[in-house]
Amino acid sequence: MERADKGLAFMLQYENVAWYDAGEVRILDRRVYPRKVEFVACKTHGEVAQALTDMVTQSTGPFTAAAMGMALAAYECREKTAAEQIAYLERAAYTISHARPTTVSRMQLITGGCLEAAKAALAAGEGDIAMAIRDYTVAANNRRYNKVGQIAKYLVDMFPDNGTVMTQCFAETIVGQMLKECRERGKNIRLFCPETRPYFQGARLTATVCRDMGFDVTVITDNMPAYVMQQEKVDVFTCAADAICCDGYVANKVGTFQIAIAAKYMGIPVFITGVPDAGHPTKDSVRIEWRDPNFTLQAMGVKTAADGVKGYYPAFDLTPPGLISGVVTDLGIYSPYDLKRYLAQSDLGPYEMVI
User: Measuring CA to CA, which of 56, 163, 295, 298 is 20 to 30 A from 350?
Assistant: First the structure.
């Protein structure tokens, strides 16, 4: 079976996102990558859930880690009866899916798919349920990466030749697939990546993937997007989303809203990649995740603010549909006001919805 991560950057390879093997899940620590290449080793599914909470991996990395965490949970309960294993995995699914509040509905799709794979393996009399879940995850990742490849084709259609593209945060698979598509078409784009404080995902992750895949990439600070759009003639602003609500609102890394405002003012199209989330019928269903405010008072562990100064750290914001030119899906580009039509037409499986 040819894997869909072929030809993508180091950190997009399955084993370098999160991987289960022999009673352990190893997760690439994106908090320190690329200056260090380190993996966090988890011996229990509870440790996997804690790693998700602690932002060891971000973007769509948590979804692969969650699935591998379910494989680890299956290893933990391997000596129990079939009924006891299912009950254990159901509890593990809840723990893992609720590790981060903003992504609960999508995480439930992931862990639910793994649970069904485990039930099928138990019914078939397979001896190693953990490996059955890992095999399911690899196959599901292949389908997901290929679906993202379809999204990339529609997205790259929106890029002019020798165009300039601005991103936000780290859009994981779509970044790799859109660059792979550009490379195959001979479309030579340059990219500007806001740094995305306080974890610097744009500076450390997006920019590294762009560099590794041979593209001209420049990191800018988070207060530069409007100026750069104006001075560098940005053609397109694109990002993925942590949740695309069916009413057209998009939850993504905090800062997306303000970049979309600047793009709208300057007449630059805003394309969001991903698929609508049936678990989020409206923006009111999104719970914005608040993180430790002390992180905004430092930069990569070095304190920058005086003692006694307060921090403020919402992890995401909501971009309204009026600022979005289109939602780019595997079936084409949809108006943010017409997303229910996508759900009626799509045949994506549970895991593939998380793209």
Answer: 56
Determine the Cα–Cα distance for residues 121 and 110; give it in Å rounded to an integer.
Answer: 17
Nearest partner of 133 among 6, 204, 56, 48, judged by Cα: 48
**Which residue's entry shows tokens 């100064």?**
309
Partners of 195 in beta bridges: none
The residue-averaged pLDDT of 154-167 equals 97
Q: Residues 226, 231, 235, 241: is their CA dihedral positive or negative?
A: negative
Binned at pLDDT 50, 70 and 90, residue 350 comes out as low
58 within 8 A of 198, measured Cβ to Cβ: no
Q: Name the region of 16 (left: φ>0; alpha: ψ -120 to 50; beta: rest).
A: alpha
Q: Give the span between the Cα atoms of 256 and 243, in whole angstroms.
A: 13
* Long-range contacts (CB closer than 8 Å, 24 or more residues apart) made by 42-51: 42/69, 42/72, 43/72, 44/72, 44/76, 45/69, 45/70, 45/72, 45/73, 45/76, 45/92, 45/95, 45/96, 46/95, 48/72, 48/96, 49/95, 49/96, 49/98, 49/99, 50/99, 51/27
Segments of 36-120 assigned E as strands: 39-42
**Would you say 207 and 66 are in contact if contact means Cβ atoms under 8 Å apart?**
no
Residue that the structure tokens 């070095």 belong to: 302
Q: How far apart are CA 30 and CA 32, in angstroms?
A: 5
Question: Positive or negative, the Cα torsion across 322, 323, 328, 332?
Answer: positive
- The Cα-based distances of 83 to 88, 93, 120, 323, 351 in angstroms read 9, 15, 13, 50, 24
SS3 content of the chain, % helix, strand, coil (to 5): 45, 15, 40
How far is residue 189's CA from residue 159's CA, in Å, rounded to a whole number? 8
The tens digit of pLDDT for each residue in 92-123 reads 999 999 999 878 888 999 999 999 999 999 99
Tell me if 193 sits within 8 A of 203, measured CB to CB. Answer: yes
Q: Confirm if 153 and 181 have CB atoms less than 8 A apart.
A: yes
Q: Which residues pair with 39 in a beta bridge?
A: 28
- pLDDT one-digit tens code per residue, 242-253: 899 999 999 999
Residue with tokens 């919402």: 314
